[in-house]
From TrEMBL:
Major subcellular location class: secreted
Stored PROSITE patterns: EMI, FAS1
An MF annotation (GO) of this entry: cell adhesion molecule binding
Highest taxon, organism lineage: Eukaryota
Alphabetical UniProt keywords: Cell adhesion, Disulfide bond, Extracellular matrix, Gamma-carboxyglutamic acid, Phosphoprotein, Repeat, Secreted, Signal
Assembly with partners or alone: Binds to type I, II, and IV collagens.
Signal peptide: 1-21
Protein name: Transforming growth factor-beta-induced protein ig-h3
Domain FAS1: 103-236, 240-371, 375-498, 502-631
């Protein structure tokens, strides 16, 4: 029988679904924050919540984990106080808030939650108090006493002078004809009010903030016998116009109005949905250079990107911002929205002059500065916001400005300002040609570049792409920051001036008098063809002084073609490794077979712990790094040869011992010892 009951219970649980077998439905963000406040307040007794109050204001917030440790709201310091959680009260002589508030009707509950002004105005109407005290199930979003007192005098006068029409209608707009708890308040939903069935907009944000027509819930879920009361921080009013209609009627949006019409976005802004429009005022447009503004207004694609960069994908009320957060625009750009006291900020700037203008399809915040996305900018405009101003001045001086402000599809490789800390090169034919080779004849994105790809420049050169574990390089220059993609061009910020390859490795070595002895050695060893043909090599090139500094014995070793070729191959890696691709340590396989240890520390490249005197001389089939010593392969180093000999002797003695134990006849060890002696002679 017991087994039958258990099986029946399991069957019922499965039939009811996974929620019944787990812990119930997930809690709303508001309830999670309230739960955290309870957790922080439990040391003070049952049903005590920790509340953060912004110093110098009456603003209070239930605390989440991040705010608890930061002790800040909108950058302002807070103090922690401990209060009874919603629905509970203190009992004299007992710790905490052990008693549940007695249930009463809506009218009396208004006084309990601190909305006595709403009670007072309810009394002044003839019909509303009996309704609040009578049977039914209602929700009232009750403005706090401070909310009523902050209304403009003329608005308050118009309400109280006509209590049975204006005031009654205003109060009914705060009511819903059913019980709605915070768990029922979903982000982006609308509730039908008891005033002409007008909609109320609800937003329930991930940080636990709940807003009603952008008024914040202060104390929620106060149950009554005939409904529930939520205390809010503003008196809310009906919403009649959509975003497009507000743009049409506001004089400060004259330029925006024309831009929206030209872009065709008016259809979206007057349709269904929930958007946030960061609406630039006429003043914001006037701050932009006339040439830039005319260019964008005359380019449908750039104009659409500009306007989409001012539209967020959901409604964002100011009260929802208690700390910085990233939001995505319709254009795809990420904006950093934050707050400083009562001011909202965009990308760290307090440019919002008027906030929370409600529309039927979202909310509008007025801004006094245009948010131009990269996708609407020229290369010059992209560079103005990057650390490449010195390079841009060089491009201008070289007469290449038209390429950076026109409609060509290009990618600009712009070295960082720090590259020119020792001065800039004079503008001459060589410099102009070098700068032309910093402009790629295509609009690229770094995420699509691949190893071995070739890129054509305005100067006619073919540049190679090298992909390393932690860097992406074009010839000797590596990308130092995220690329910026503009209307027609893309900006790559580079860590050094790019030097295009000038001939093969052999051409590079022959053209430099420092390598005359190396060139002769390469020719004697029969490696000329290797370093002339197509390939991908890293050559650590010893200078003439390096060869002259060799000890006499090692110079003698270079006189045989075989030994010479062995040593030279040890100086040649079998792939291209530029200094920007090294990282901490790279083991590079040489043509000789052994590996070279290439490292980078304090911007100095070393190979086998020997510093490189000059890195990154680019060739069409490789790269040359200048060194001031001749590298010795492992078996050419005396110490390592001795180590190898000792290892061989040890191994032979082990073999001899094994033979001895097996046969117990020493005569059989003779061949082994003879082999050892021969090895030691060599």
């Amino acid at each position: 029988m017991a087994l039958f009951v258990r099986l029946l219970a399991l069957a019922l649980a499965l039939a009811l679904g996974p929620a019944a077998t787990l812990t119930g439905p997930a809690k709303s963000p508001y309830q999670l924050v309230l739960q955290h406040s309870r957790l922080r307040g439990r040391q003070h007794g049952p049903n005590v919540c920790a509340v953060q109050k912004v110093i110098g204001t009456n603003r209070k917030y239930f605390t989440n984990c991040k705010q608890w440790y930061q002790r800040k709201i909108c950058g302002k310091s807070t103090v922690i106080s401990y209060e009874c959680c919603p629905g509970y009260e203190k009992v004299p002589g007992e710790k905490g808030c052990p008693a549940a508030l007695p249930l009463s009707n809506l009218y009396e509950t208004l006084g309990v939650v601190g909305s006595t002004t709403t009670q007072l105005y309810t009394d002044r109407t003839e019909k509303l108090r009996p309704e609040m005290e009578g049977p039914g199930s209602f929700t009232i979003f009750a403005p706090s006493n401070e909310a009523w007192s902050s209304l403009p005098a003329e608005v308050l006068d118009s309400l109280v002078s006509n209590v049975n029409i204006e005031l009654l209608n205003a109060l009914r707009y705060h009511m819903v004809n059913r019980r709605v708890l915070t768990d029922d308040l979903k982000h982006g939903m609308t509730l039908t009010s008891m005033y002409q069935n007008s909609n109320i907009q609800i937003h329930h944000y991930p940080n636990g903030i709940v807003t009603v027509n952008c008024a914040r819930l202060l104390k929620a879920d106060h149950h009554a016998t005939n409904g529930v009361v939520h205390l809010i921080d503003k008196v809310i009013s009906t919403i009649t116009n959509n975003i497009q209609q507000i743009i049409e009627i506001e004089d400060t949006f004259e330029t925006l109005r024309a831009a929206v019409a030209a872009s065709g976005l008016n259809t979206m802004l007057e349709g269904n949905g929930q958007y946030t429009l960061l609406a630039p005022t006429n003043e914001a447009f006037e701050k932009i250079p006339t040439e830039t503004l005319n260019r964008i207004l005359g380019d449908p694609e750039a104009l659409r990107d500009l306007l989409n960069n001012h539209i967020l994908k959901s409604a964002m009320c100011a009260e929802a911002i208690v700390a910085g957060l990233s939001v995505e625009t319709l254009e795809g750009t990420t904006l950093e929205v934050g707050c400083s006291g009562d001011m909202l900020t965009i990308n760290g700037k307090a440019i919002i002059s008027n906030k929370d203008i409600l529309a039927t399809n979202g909310v509008i915040h007025y801004i006094d500065e245009l948010l131009i996305p990269d996708s609407a900018k020229t290369l010059f405009e992209l560079a103005a916001e990057s650390d490449v101003s010195t390079a841009i001045d060089l491009f201008r001086q070289a007469g290449l400005g038209a390429h950076l402000s026109g409609s060509e599809r290009l990618t600009l490789l712009a070295p960082l300002n720090s590259v020119f800390k020792d001065g800039t090169p004079p503008i001459n034919a060589h410099t102009r040609n070098l700068l032309r080779n910093h402009i790629i004849k295509d609009q690229l994105a770094s995420k699509y570049l691949y190893h071995g790809q070739t890129l054509e420049t305005l100067g006619g050169k073919k540049l190679r792409v090298f992909v390393y574990r932690n860097s992406l390089c074009i010839e000797n220059s590596c990308i130092a920051a995220h690329d910026k993609r503009g209307r027609y061009g893309t900006l790559f910020t580079m860590d050094r001036v790019l030097t295009p390859p000038m001939g093969t490795v052999m051409d590079v070595l022959k053209a430099d008098n420092r390598f005359s002895m190396l060139v002769a050695a390469i020719q004697s060893a029969g490696l000329t063809e290797t370093l002339t043909r197509e390939g991908a090599y890293t050559v650590f090139a010893p200078t003439n002084e390096a060869f002259r500094a060799l000890p006499p014995k090692e110079q003698t070793n270079l006189k045989t073609a075989k030994e010479l070729a062995n040593i030279l191959k040890y100086h040649i890696g079998d792939e291209i490794l530029v200094s920007g691709g090294i990282g901490a340590l790279v083991r590079l396989k040489s043509l000789q077979g052994d590996k070279l240890e290439v490292s980078l520390k304090n911007n100095v490249v070393s190979v086998n712990k020997e510093p490189v005197a000059e890195p990154d001389i680019m060739a069409t089939n490789g790269v040359v790094h200048v060194i001031t010593s001749v590298l010795q392969p492992p078996f050419n180093r005396p110490q390592e040869r001795g180590d190898e000999l000792a290892d061989s002797a040890l191994e032979i003695f082990k073999q001899a011992s094994a033979f001895s134990r097996a046969s117990q006849r020493s005569v059989r060890l003779a061949p082994v010892y003879q082999k050892l002696l021969e090895r030691m002679k060599h």
